[in-house]
């Protein structure tokens, strides 16, 4: 089954997160948020803000694109204390930071804009954080390696 461009880009981000925070598992989509799985884990969702489309910003040297697509994403993160983290909050902050660093590394700093963050209590992990970003995953804007 073919995956969306957003899912393909998030799959490319996952090894970057694992390099910064080993042992993380990943899933995509709302049904996976309710799944009772062991932390650390990240579930990617499309945010309520949705997707916006605007006229493309390109330079003469790039292949011109007709539209840029901005996608608002939410990463729901769970983590527990352990290893070098003394508290659940410290582990959770480290995981959220790893996700943001990986997104910026893969897409470019200017293309990943934090939109908000929400922390909630959760029985299986004690704490859960949801952070949303606006990302521009159109091929014309992805960082070239």
The strand line-up of the biggest sheet is 1-2-3-5-4
Q: What's the oligomerization state? A: single chain
The residue ranges in which pLDDT falls below 50 over 5 or more consecutive positions are 137-145
**Class by SSE composition:** alpha+beta
Q: Which radius of gyration do the C-alpha atoms yield?
A: 16 Å
Helix coverage percent: 10-25%
Main beta-sheet strand count, sense and barrel state: 5 strands, mixed
Strand content: 35-45%
Any idea of the CATH class?
Alpha Beta
| CATH T-level fold name | STM4215-like
Shape: globular
Order of helices and strands: HEEEHEE
Entry keywords:
145 residues; alpha+beta; STM4215-like; five-stranded mixed beta sheet; 2 helices; 25% helix; globular; disordered C terminus
Description:
The chain is α+β, with helices and mostly antiparallel strands. It has a single domain, classed as 2-Layer Sandwich (STM4215-like). 25% of the residues lie in helices and 36% in strands. A 5-stranded mixed sheet has the order 1-2-3-5-4. Helix 1 packs across helix 2. The C terminus is likely disordered.
Fold blueprint:
Blueprint: H1 5-20, E1 25-28, E2 41-55, E3 67-78, H2 88-107, E4 112-122, E5 126-135
Helix pairs in contact: 1-2
Please provide a brief summary of the model.
This protein has 2 helices and 5 strands; from the N terminus they run H-E-E-E-H-E-E. With 145 residues, the chain is an alpha+beta fold. The protein has a 5-stranded mixed sheet with strand order 1-2-3-5-4.
């Amino acid at each position: 089954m073919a995956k969306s461009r957003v899912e393909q880009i998030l799959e490319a981000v996952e090894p970057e997160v694992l390099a910064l925070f080993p042992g993380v598992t990943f899933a995509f989509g709302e049904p996976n948020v309710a799944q009772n799985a062991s932390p650390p884990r990240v579930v990617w969702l499309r945010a309520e803000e949705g997707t916006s489309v605007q006229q493309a910003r390109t330079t003469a040297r790039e292949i011109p694109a007709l539209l840029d697509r901005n996608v608002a994403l939410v990463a729901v993160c769970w983590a527990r204390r352990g290893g070098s983290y003394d508290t659940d909050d410290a582990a959770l902050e480290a995981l959220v930071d790893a996700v943001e660093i990986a997104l910026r590394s893969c897409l470019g700093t200017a293309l990943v804009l934090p939109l908000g963050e929400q922390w909630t209590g959760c029985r299986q992990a004690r704490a859960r954080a949801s952070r949303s970003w606006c990302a521009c995953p159109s091929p014309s804007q992805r960082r070239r390696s």
